[in-house]
Specification:
heterodimer, A: alpha+beta, seven-stranded mixed sheet, three-stranded antiparallel sheet, 40% helix, 19% strand, globular, B: 75 residues, alpha+beta, 1 helix
Chain lengths: 339, 75
């Protein structure tokens, strides 16, 4: 489903978007935990902002998170999945360039505080890291002809999930920037970290989202599995709600949510045949998404794209297999061919 | 189901009273149950009991406030 529409789209693309966003939620949750709940770093932190919005002359900017340290310095961090097209790299560089000009960061009182030093931190998946270094540092920062020429280089951290933990590694190459912000002890003292999920799971359940716009499939899945059951309890045949109420529920449960995001998620559920809409009222047809243990987001993506579900395919395969099996009434199987 | 490796995360709704939970398996010897906005104590007890019976749990307990983890333990 394209954003803002309710026409079908490629289910694989929807699921890819879900996975990328979910990974970003994990990464923000990890840093949220590192800076606020570990033994060493919280004493140096004034405020960790998970959903920063910073007003600038160029409009409102929304990095993935910011950290205001007690010594008046700060981090502004962006998670970037750099794609093949050059426009994707240019877009990331423009963002990083704007962030590097921040003079204030969010504080715990809902305002902002001036910072004396600012580290721009670029977090990138490990499989894109080498490419990101070549294209951002090599082809742009070190190219005197290119417009992107920050006073200080961003610090790049690569990350990857493993079966047991996440890996966070400050890019070891000499092209990388260096950390100047933060107190003592300082994040730079731990270039490689391997946080296991048990450490940040609580944080992820509580907040659930990252600062980037929530993909419709991601929010639709949350609505279906958490928000609607919490609102309506035991399944009735049909529950009714409004977009405004759903937005309020999402904000109440997770502290974040925008009208456009809720509208897009509800449209996706409508395309999937799970809700209907008339006269400003959403009717929710609560039912199991699948009779298998398939992931909820995969099932919704398949329904929304018009693709057949896993169950449908299994049933078709079974019918085909049954049809191809010889029966007592087939001439072949009875050995009477040609008799 | 929300998430698989490196951890398992799924939502669970108790059809008896509509209680909703997030359930996470982040290590091999524990299942964490996070009560949602609509969840009763009796449902939490029921869900905990069912999961503990299914997996042969040694104990069911409220997660105690744990000592902060050192970054040196994550290296």
């Amino acid at each position: 489903m394209a954003r803002g529409t309710d026409s079908p789209a490629d289910p694989d693309a929807l699921v890819r978007g879900y996975v990328i966003y979910d990974r970003a939620v994990d990464i923000v949750s990890i840093y949220h935990w590192l800076f606020t709940e570990t033994k060493e770093l919280p004493s140096t932190v004034e405020h960790f902002e998970r959903y920063p919005k910073l007003k600038t002359s160029e409009g409102e900017l929304t990095p993935d998170f910011t950290v205001l340290f007690r010594n008046g310095t700060g981090w502004v961090a962006e998670i970037a999945n750099i794609a093949l097209p050059e426009g994707s790299v240019e877009s990331v560089c423009r963002q990083l360039d704007k962030y590097s000009r921040f003079t204030h960061l969010p504080n715990a009182r809902g305002g902002t505080t001036e910072v004396s030093k600012l580290d721009v931190v670029l977090l990138t998946p490990i499989d894109n890291a080498t490419d990101a270094v070549r294209r951002i540092y090599g082809e742009r920062i070190e190219n005197p002809e290119h417009w992107y020429s920050p006073a200080r280089r961003p610090v790049m951290i690569q990350f990857a999930p493993t079966p047991d933990h996440y890996v966070l590694q400050v890019w070891p190459g000499s092209q990388n920037g260096v950390f100047l912000a933060g107190g003592e002890p300082n994040y730079r003292d731990w270039a490689d970290l391997k946080p296991p999920p048990k450490n940040f799971a609580n944080n992820k359940v509580r907040y659930a989202f990252a600062n980037d716009p929530i993909p419709p499939l991601y929010l639709a899945t949350r609505l279906w599995l958490n928000v609607f059951p919490s609102r309506f309890g035991v399944s009735a045949v049909t529950d009714e709600t409004t977009t405004e109420e759903v937005l309020e529920l999402v904000r109440h449960q997770y502290g974040r949510g925008r009208m456009g995001e809720v509208e897009d998620a509800m449209k996706m559920l409508r395309t999937a045949g799970l809700v209907t809409f008339a006269d400003g009222i959403w009717k929710i047809r609560r039912r199991r998404l699948s009779r298998t243990d398939s992931d909820a987001h995969v099932a919704i993506a398949q329904l929304a794209s018009g693709a057949r579900t896993v169950d449908d395919r299994a049933r078709t395969r079974m019918r085909r297999e049954l049809a191809s099996q010889p029966t007592l009434f087939d001439e072949d199987s009875m050995g009477i061919d040609g008799v | 189901m929300f998430h698989r490796n490196p951890y398992l995360h799924f939502a669970l709704t108790d059809e008896q009273d509509g209680s909703n939970f997030d359930v996470l398996v982040t290590r091999e010897d524990a299942i964490d149950i996070f009560p949602g906005f609509r969840s009763s104590a009796s449902s939490l007890a029921r869900v905990s009991q069912l999961l503990s019976e299914a997996f042969g749990a040694l104990e069911i307990r409220e997660q105690p406030g744990s000592e902060p983890v050192s970054l040196y333990d994550l290296v």
